[in-house]
Design brief:
5 helices, mainly alpha, 434 Repressor (Amino-terminal Domain)
């Protein structure tokens, strides 16, 4: 399965839409059974205009066998990489 990059648009609805598509492809009845939620409740929770609790999203992801990983946005990763390079240069320069 391909990673879902939500940070590109900063749109939570995109994340919900992606999870909804995956859940529908796996079968909402099966996901509902694994999460302990009713099928109709699951449809409502994964609607684009919904604001589901994190607990619900977490249950759905677990039921689908999906792991969520949080990483810094690119601008922060670039800054960190530059900082690491500067620190590495100083270590070499000063032989720390």
């Amino acid at each position: 399965m391909l990673p879902i990059l939500v940070s590109e648009s900063d749109d939570p609805a995109l994340f919900l839409r992606a999870i909804g598509h995956i859940a529908r492809s796996k079968g909402m009845s099966q996901i509902a059974e694994k999460t302990g939620l009713g099928r109709e409740s699951l449809y409502k929770a994964l609607d684009e205009k919904a604001h589901p609790r994190f607990e619900t999203i977490f249950k759905v992801l677990n039921a689908m066998g999906i792991q969520m990983t949080l990483v810094p946005k690119m601008k922060f990763r670039k800054r960190r990489k530059q900082t690491e390079l500067c620190v590495a240069e100083k270590r070499v320069r000063y032989k720390v």
